[in-house]
Amino acid sequence: MAAHREQLDRGAPPGGGLVVESEEVGAGRLRVEVDEQGTKAPGGEDGRQVHGGRRLTVAALVVGNGKELPACPVETTLAIIQSKWQVLVLRGLLLNGTMRFKELQRSIGKISQRVLTDNLRALEDYGIVHREVFAEVPPRVEHSLTETGQSLRTVIDVIWTWGEEHKERLRLQDK
Fold first, then answer.
1. CA-angle at 133, arms to 28 and 146, nearest 5°
2. Neighbouring C-beta atoms of residue 93, cutoff 10 Å
3. Which of 18, 22, 54, 80 has its CA at 20 to 30 Å from residue 166's CA atom?
């Protein structure tokens, strides 16, 4: 495991400040911020852990494609699935399987070609969606979910169920 350590001053007193330590973990790199002057007890108010008199904050995981993901699993999920359009892309591909661009666009509704393209590219970058281009005239492009994308089925199912259970109550509140 290769480790990297860097001192960040951030206006701290001499000998203090923030140390960023990063260590190779699997296919990514874990970044940990260490406050050398930290005195909080374990489970302190700020949620940081204390180790050897140093406060530690797991700051982020840098994945293989160079993108930095938050340490919190909820934040990580939201960093990857950033918009309602991406949730609707996932819904369409989960319900219909492999789809061509226009089929996916019609299944979503009022989404422009550019917005759909940008969201598909973002999901491809994270390995959620697979794009296959066929060497035909005219070219044919199909989109499908990867194994990682398929693993989001339970998340989309929970969102679907919650929406069904609360749709009527929310409709009545708007009146």
1. 40
2. 25
3. 80
Residue labelled with tokens 């359009």: 85
Q: In this structure, which amino acid lies at residue 24? A: E
> 0.70 cut: is pTM over it?
no
Q: What is the spatial distance between Cα 33 and Cα 42, in angstroms, rounded to a whole number?
A: 16
- Walk along the chain (175 residues) and give the pLDDT tens digit of each residue: 344 444 444 444 444 444 445 555 444 555 555 555 544 334 444 444 444 555 555 555 565 556 677 778 888 888 889 899 999 999 999 999 999 999 999 999 999 999 999 999 999 999 999 999 999 998 899 999 999 999 999 999 999 999 998 888 887 777 6
Q: Report the alpha-carbon distance of residue 15 to residue 162 in Å, rounded.
A: 51
Query: What is the rounded CA–CA span in Å between residue 163 and residue 72?
Result: 25
With contact defined as beta carbons under 8 Å apart, do 15 and 39 qualify? no
